[in-house]
Amino acid sequence: MVAQESHQHAAPQGFIRKWVFSLDHKVIGLQYYFLALTAVFVGMFLSLLMRIHLIWPTAILPLVGEIKPETYLSLVTMHGTIMVFFVLTTAPQGGFGNYFLPIQIGAPDMAFPVLNMLSFWTTFVAYIVMLAAFFVVGGAPLHGWTGYAPMSALQSSGPGEGLGADLWIISIAIFCIASLMGALNFITTTLDMRAKGMSMFRMPLTCWSWFITAILGLLAFGVLLSAGILLLMDRNLGTSFFLPLGTINGQMTGHKGGSPLLWQHLFWFFGHPEVYIAILPGMGVASQILSTFSRKPIFGYKAMVYAMLSIGLLGFMVWGHHMFMSGMSPYSAFAFSIMTMAIGVPSAIKTFNWLGTLHKGRIRFQSPMLFAIGFVSLFVSGGLSGPFLAQPALDIPLHDTAFVPGHFHLIMGVAAIFGIFAATYYWFPKMFGRMMDEKLARIHFFLTLIGTYCVFMPMHYLGLAGQPRRYSQLTELAYLHPLVGLNTFMTYAAIVTVAAQLIFLFNLFWSMFKGQKASDNPWEATTLEWTTATPPPHDNFGGHTPVVHNGPYEYSVPGAPRDYVMQTDPATVAAH
Amino acid sequence: MGLIILCVIWLITLASTYFFVAKTWWFPHGASAAAAGIDHQFTVTFIIMGVIFVAAQLALGYFVWRYRDQPSATRPDYSHGNLTLEIIWTTLTAILFVGLNLIGSPIWAAERFRPAVDGATRVEVTGMQFAWYFRYPGPDGKFGTTRPELEDPSAGGEAALGLDPADPASKDDIVTGIMEVPVNREVELILRAHDVIHSFFVPAMRFKQDAVPGLAIHMHFTPIETGSFEITCAELCGLGHYKMHGILKVVSQDEFDQWLAAREAEKQ
Amino acid sequence: MASFTPTIPAPRPTTSRGNRADLPPVAGGGDGGRPDPDSPDYGARLRRARLGLAVALTPIMMLFVAFTSAYIVRQGLPTFDPHTNTVVHDWIPVPLPTLLFLVNTCVLLLSSITMEYARRQLARQVALEPVQSIPGISLGTESKFPWLALTIILGLCFLGGQWLAWRDLAARGFYVATGPSSSFIYLLTGGHAVHLLGGILALLVAGTAVVLHRPLASRRIVVDVTAWYWHFMALLWIYILALLEFAH
Are residues B129 and B250 in the same domain? Predict the structure, then answer.
């Protein structure tokens, strides 16, 4: 007889090993998620101050007092930076990806658990350093999340451009390292730790999205890091990578020969893949949920995979579309614009396939599905304003007007966020063993969907009318005065929308303790996380390794006993 | 629930579309030669994207209601997709998107691929925190050299630009805070900036170009209507970004000549 | 149940590329941390660590690709000189301490050789570990040669040599901010030095692991991965040197 040695990971004892410096990807995933949760409320608070200031510029607000023009710009900068990095690059990938990638591929943990733990705590340090910028002399920087030089490279270009800007750059550099550590884990885990039978083309689309996102991050964050290093050198060591001969406030800067456009190239080479990093996991989750709640396989699984791969690849070839007006060669602009229109094609394919999944389905309207449907609507809206900006001739009147934040907020600030909401409502039962309240979820959904459309759709109109971006007040230019009414409407909508998120927050925490107890598979879904206990045990599968026989979306298989066939069920006629 | 979602999505779609079609908030009237082409390309893009927007949102709302789970619903269609359909709509989308871009590219080429014509009105535009200055070369047709060391923003005018009095070509340069140009004649701009990136944006002319320190960027446009037009700064440049604006005055050739002569006379 | 055979753990199905069809599912999963190099876990861990390294080298490469593109762009960059109202090029190449760099290169290449010996030495030790328990067998003395320590020393010598090179540049008046060319020299060589220092720290960890009696297999994995990293650092250095010497 063969002795059975127990080879399970010993579950850690003690509060610190279990909850603080945990090596368990599930705990780490939750840590990332809650970091992003605090960040999103900070980011929303900043944006609320911005919207209020725009229509009541002289108002003295409780807690913050008067918002001066430089304060407004620091709000703009920190809002963008915190949302892009600490929410959109953290929750979908670091949060849900960490939690569910190993489980969905049948692995007991990530490839490098210690590295995983370090990657979270490094992100946390980056977050603290970023927030510290608010509290130093001069305050947070003014130069926008894009940090264009020379403004970001000269300490005297404005208040907050001293220590505040240095902390901002250092925080981003730390974040780069953290992201690279995370990407390493995701890629190695996906390639090396899939369970028996889990071929690449049987992976759920969520796993594909996390995998491709990790590759994008791997290639892009190194370049951002390089830009940050050069910027720190220009600011503090007297180099002139980005700084030409020039003056500031009538004083010579002491630099010469550098190129502000070099910053833009390096930044946007990262910056464009970054926005796909922000949206791809949401696309994966949307596919997962639309299929599950339509009780139909995803329409065109392989096309979905190839579309995500194309988006990832093309995403590295379009960065110049942020620079049409920059002084870059107009011939390069033409080339970039063709590539940019091309990247619209895989996005369109995905949208057709989502509609194809709904078509002739049998749709259940539980909370995850509401947000997945919302995701599709918002992705269409946000995506279709892209082709305007992608054409350089049309970018001439639209660049740096409110049209641009209208575009990217609908896509990043709402669609990607709906992806996070959808994932939350979908996986909450598995993570916490209880259901979230459906009634509150519906109120949250409708208020947020309508509210965000009311805030961000009008930005397109403002852009057409010529309202520039990043203006702290609309009082100086005569042609902006007629736009104050619409801006006021947007501010009220923003207040209501932010308030609606408190419903979500309440639902989240209340349900953790008081929600209805959840079964192991409340949504009758097929992927591996639903085969295991709720919440999953320390090694994810309670001592055995799953063996996969089916594809990830086998719903309504003709001849099957139920309307779903789990991936571990014996192979059916329809096995792919 | 399906019906509610349908209604919400359809209403949002219709409301958004209404305000676009009604042009409640729209581009200002175009006053340059390029405006017609840009506006036309915008309209073509707008119609195509608008049709796709409405179709996709209406389809989404409809599907969500039509295929809702109810006792009378049929078993869902067990289909993994349709390769033919994929190929068709991929090809059509690619042709549409890339084609749209190619149709519009002559406009970009006309604006940016060629230098200004000879005989254009030459104006050097300099942006600095937080004002625009305009310099005309004067009768000698040459811009005098500037030296960053000589810049004194508080003094305004020539001193703000750091105009070098030692250079003979500087003597007849005219520096103003308002940009005045003659109508129906191409304007050649030389865009410069002293400190940070600014952007010279005249909505009515459908003209925008970043002014970058270290570069002297040559651009052109042709005003075809007289009037006063707002110049705004369209690149975040600091705390005064929101109030960095100027005025572009387009006048008849005679008026322009007189104005220029008057500025010359003031310098004596 | 009593048995006369020594207890041998049943081979466990490992998670890998998802298509190993030979092993039945057996209870007990995950890595028990056993030091037995014959354990399939060890091979999987080594492969996984090497894969992780290959992935990790990608962003390091991207960092230097970004620096390179900035370097090339900056060299050719015309800048508007308001003094002359013309566009000028202002790149002035800095004379490099070439001899010193070449000596350092030799030191680094030598360290790569010693690193490779260290890697193979440890691989042999791990493979022969079960044999060691058989009485009468001894491994030859050559396996005791401190290749790892020698590599660390050579690595530190390289860093010392780089320090001398920077001192030489400074003595001739070329500091970080003196001009664009000198900025890039410090940036590229400094960036490389930082990464090499990371490699040295990893080797120190592996060396210290001996003192701390860590499992041989784990040490082998650390040294193996660090060795490939080290060789990459050598190649990167040659690339940087070539870039600085020839691309100006």
Answer: yes
